[in-house]
Amino acid sequence: MLKNLASALILTERNAEDDPNPPKLKGRIITTLHKAKEVRPLVEKCITLGGKALAHADAAEKHGTTAARKSDAWKAWRKSKKWQEWAGAMAPAIAIRRRLLVLLGDKQAVEVLLGEVAPRFRDRKGGYTRVVRLATPRLGDAGTRAIIEFVGVRDRKVQKSEKPAFSDDAAETVKA
């Protein structure tokens, strides 16, 4: 159940133009409070692993080639020492991708995580999701509902209030 919930949250970020049932808001699902609190560590762990996979893939990129696959240049690169360095640098990224597939159980969710969600949180150390309790209970069993969503999309901006400016005439009438 938690795998499905985590995958559902990540899949809300995908491009769902042709989907018959697109998400209402990207990066947000409504569930019960207890489920949201339970799935949060799983989602955060997956995003952290996704960030590490991206770092390994970036490190391997300097050893890669731009030649087309099965071309003569690609075949020469494949037999060179550069390929061995690339494969050694890329191996942790592939292992992390496989670990994410085990954690989420959905290939499309892993693709969306590594393609859209993890790059957004690359510079962040943690706290990728928030759980917000809703006031109205669920119909049927009156379960406490909550929203679990990714941070950074619909964050409130802190605004400092301005001190009121009084005119001199108003200040004199107050003193009198």
Short overview:
The chain is mostly helical. The chain has helices spanning 2-11, 33-61, 72-78, 81-104, 107-120, 168-175, and strands at residues 28-32, 129-133, 145-150.
Explain the layout of strands and helices:
Blueprint: H1 2-11, E1 28-32, H2 33-61, H3 72-78, H4 81-104, H5 107-120, E2 129-133, E3 145-150, H6 168-175
Antiparallel strand pairs: 1-3, 2-3
Helix pairs in contact: 1-2, 1-5, 2-4, 2-5, 4-5
Number of helices: 6
First-last Cα distance:
71 Å
User: Are there runs of 5+ residues with pLDDT below 50, and where?
Assistant: none
Number of E-type strands: 3
Instruction: Quote the average pLDDT.
Output: 87
SSE arrangement, N to C: HEHHHHEEH
- Strand order of the main beta sheet, please? 1-3-2
The helical percent reads 40-55%
How much of the sequence lies in strands comes to 5-15%
Give structural notes.
This protein has 176 residues and is mainly α. Helices cover 52% and strands 9% of the residues. The protein is built from six helices and three strands; from the N terminus they run αβααααββα. It has helices at residues 2-11, 33-61, 72-78, 81-104, 107-120, 168-175; strands at residues 28-32, 129-133, 145-150. The protein has a three-stranded antiparallel beta sheet, with helices on one face. Helix 4 (81-104) crosses helix 5. 20% of the residues are buried. The model has no long low-confidence stretch (mean pLDDT 87).
